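queue> pop job 88
queue> type: inverse folding (structure -> sequence)
queue> payload:
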């Protein structure tokens, strides 16, 4: 039975590597896949997704206003049976696009595997991630480690000098030079040292 899967993590946990390996496993068995990647992530000039360790595969780019259900229907009409859809950087999906991917699963009976960050540099959920967490059939955490040795679950944005950034737009593309994965405890410590006053307190009302 087709399902909608959300594989989430902090930065540098190997999300794209895992996606590419899974897509390869399908193709190795003679099954056709479609990889979707957002136009917001423009680190590659070509129509492809690539991991930090050098793996790469062709991808179809989508913009925030694109209908992903129709995109998949068009792909099937033009290329035949589709066995799986993969979505890279799924945190950039809109609410409507997450719903459309659920329709790919429920109406077209094609499994969808989405990979993305759960939270941004402020500790807030991305739109795409929030609805994937709400609507996905299965959730899988891809784990990585903080420099403290604890499991990293949060992301810190840093400037050119390596200092934490506490303000700015949610969507800002970058890699190791802009983002560091840390544990929740370390995230709190970094934000306090940076003088960020927006951290919630335990005694705040629900």
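queue> result:
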């Amino acid at each position: 039975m087709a399902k909608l899967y959300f594989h989430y993590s902090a930065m540098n946990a190997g999300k794209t590597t895992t996606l590419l390996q899974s897509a390869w496993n399908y193709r190795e068995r003679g099954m056709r896949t479609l990889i979707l990647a957002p136009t917001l992530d423009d680190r590659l000039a070509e129509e492809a997704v690539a991991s930090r360790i050098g793996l790469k595969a062709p991808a179809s780019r989508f913009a925030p206003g694109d209908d992903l259900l129709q995109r998949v229907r068009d792909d099937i009409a033009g290329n035949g049976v589709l066995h799986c859809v993969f979505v890279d950087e799924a945190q950039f999906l809109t609410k409507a696009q997450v719903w459309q991917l659920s329709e790919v699963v429920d109406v077209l009976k094609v499994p969808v595997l989405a990979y993305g960050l759960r939270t941004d540099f402020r500790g807030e959920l991305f739109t795409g991630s929030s609805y994937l967490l709400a609507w996905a059939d299965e959730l899988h955490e891809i784990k990585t480690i903080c420099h403290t040795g604890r499991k990293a679950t949060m992301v810190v944005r840093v400037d050119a000098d390596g200092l934490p950034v506490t303000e700015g737009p949610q969507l800002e593309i970058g890699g190791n030079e802009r983002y560091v994965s840390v544990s929740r405890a370390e995230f709190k410590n970094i934000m306090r040292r940076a003088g960020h006053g927006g951290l919630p307190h335990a005694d705040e009302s629900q």
